[in-house]
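> tool_call: predict_assembly(chains=two)
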Amino acid sequence: MTNEEQILTLVRELVAQQGESPDAIVPQAQLADLGIDSLRAIDLIFRFEEAFGITVPMEDFPQTTVADAVAYVIKLLEAKPKVSAA
Amino acid sequence: MRDGTSRRRVAITGIGVVCPLGSAVADVWDAMLAGRSAVTAREFISAATGTTLTIPAASVPDESLKPIPKASEVMADKFGKLALMAMQDAIADSGISLPQADRTRVGISTGTSMGGVIETDIGFNTIYVQKRPKVHPFTVIKTMFNSPASLLCTIHGLSGPVLSYGITCAASSVAIGEAARQIQHGYADVMIAGGTEAPLTYPAVNSWVSAQLLAPVHQMPAQSCRPFDATRNGTALGEGAAYFVLEEYEQARSRGARILVELVGYGVSTDSGHLTQPSVAGQARPMSLALADAGIAPEAIGYVSAHGTATKRNDATETQAIRVAFGKHAERLAVSSHKSMIGHLVGAAGAVGLLQCVMAVVTEKVPPTANLHTPDPECNLDYVPHVGRALPGLRGAMVNAFGLGGTAASLLVTRPH
């Protein structure tokens, strides 16, 4: 799974848990329209942090579209120091 | 003493319950009247060491859990979810339309003893056992003691007084009594009041075992909690929630509400001799205060839902305290303890006791004390052993709740008129 696919899977899981349809998750969808308000954005950020072992600064997390959020997390993943397999 | 001209009256118009005997009031009541015990031997396992602890406990059956809004589910510990289920049912049962009410005058009053135990346990497990860097971001919201109240508030847009009481075994009785006062003195017109507890985790259970409060599992586990019995040796732990809709009496009447009972008396005081051991005077006092608050004589009461934890000290003390508060009339009272059937619901115990009082007055039947096989000369009142019985003409009932730490509360309800 690519980074993007993994990220979208986490978004789908969160959205489904809230009772919204995961089909509504398209790149241009507004996070707010998916029920991801500032409180649920904190939950989303937590899931990204747990899944990828990164720190996602809350202040800079874009609360606009799905595409913006995905791009932001991908940037953080690419900036993460690579750990070589033992 | 009560001054009828300056204090408004309080009607109870709805009940909701989710407890080890079920989540439909009628079913729970039938099970109680039949003396059915939901207490079983329940094993808990330490996540750190694998050590097990087996105690008598009663839990809410899965099939009794009710749907709640998804948005609330992710924000709630089990104690919050159970509360929401019971509050929703109480509101539905009352027939009140919250959107049409003046919601600045609708409030909530909820009690719990231990709050978000399960999510707190998950949080500690995350940090200490799994050694992960962060707990889930909603842990604060899920575990805060006012979570049940906030969850309901958010759903219905309520902006009246929203109060949370952490007063151990007396929490829900105080929550309900104080809710009544909000209405009586004009601060609110409707209060959704009750209590909730979901304490069944290894560490919480361990703390109760360690404090010598729990009975060992009996040969017949369902009989582990034996209030007023000569062989009683402690209580069982339960989980559940019970809530009521309290309304200003005249407003309830003018909207055509079905008024179950009138909440006429509330007494709260502190038994402060010892942190955990009761005194006769300390337990008698809230009963006397409730009677005085209602301005009625002991003879108006036919049933007492006792605190009845089945500890050696409580039951003997409570027996004498009832005699002090009711005098000669104590001999004519029916007294019983629901803890014999569902264990100790702690922060919800008073509320479940109030359910028994309301249903007793409505149906003119009194529920039993289960597991009462060997009478104790120190406990010599009519505890309605084994099965409930009809009590035609029953007009008034009282519930007692005596909390660890001393707060003692009694509530009194009578047939509406």
